[in-house]
Amino acid sequence: MPGDLDKVVGLIREAADWLGSKGIDQWQKPWPDRAGQRERILNDLFKGKTWLLQDGKTMAATITLDTDEPMDLNAHPVWPPDKSQRPALYMRRVIVSRRYARRGLGAALLDWAADVAKRDYGARLIRIDARTTNVRLHAYYEGQRFTRCPDPRGLGDYPAQALFERGVDEPGSDFTKLFMWRTPDVSGSEPTG
């Protein structure tokens, strides 16, 4: 819901502050700029692509799922054409609040996304384009059984050119133990912590 914009932006800011303290430049500068970032987040909220996880009234995490592959500023697909042919669900803004770090919530979100991809969209893969400079994040995805794909070409200054994918049948966490479902007033079900 559009009223959740500040919650998502707050999680991004928290993550950016923590990453910055580790010398990682991810989310230090909104992409492509602050207005464009807010517009993209709001658009995903309007279209029901963004999920928020709450522990009571506390924001625990967010994830955005999309059947449309990501595009750079010139509307060029981020994923190479030979990869675009396989049905996939694309993830972005996978953020866990620092208060919930190291509890397996990130892994559970990835497994939940794989389940949604398979069950609701018939997709065989989940994909994410990660910040090119965040090598610690790359290692995390590889530890979650994602395979790094060849880097794309011709994307200029697009900040997330490290491409990762995983088959939907490769989950490892028992994510259902972490989530309870509630049906919001407006549409669909959303996981809550």
Q: What is the overall shape? A: globular
CATH architecture designation: 3-Layer(aba) Sandwich
- Strand-pairing-aware structural class: alpha+beta
User: What are the secondary-structure elements, in order, as H or E?
Assistant: HHEEHEHEHEEEE
Structural Rg: 16 Å
- Order of strands, main sheet, comes to 1-2-3-4-6-5
Count the beta strands: 8
**Helix segment count?**
5
CATH C-level name: Alpha Beta
CATH superfamily: Gcn5-related N-acetyltransferase (GNAT)
What is the residue-averaged pLDDT?
89
Q: Cα distance, first to last residue?
A: 18 Å
In total, the number of domains comes to: 1
The percent range for helix content is 25-40%
CATH topology: Aminopeptidase
Task: Report the major sheet.
Answer: 6 strands, mixed
Low-confidence stretches: 185-189
What fraction of the residues are assigned to beta strands by DSSP? 15-25%
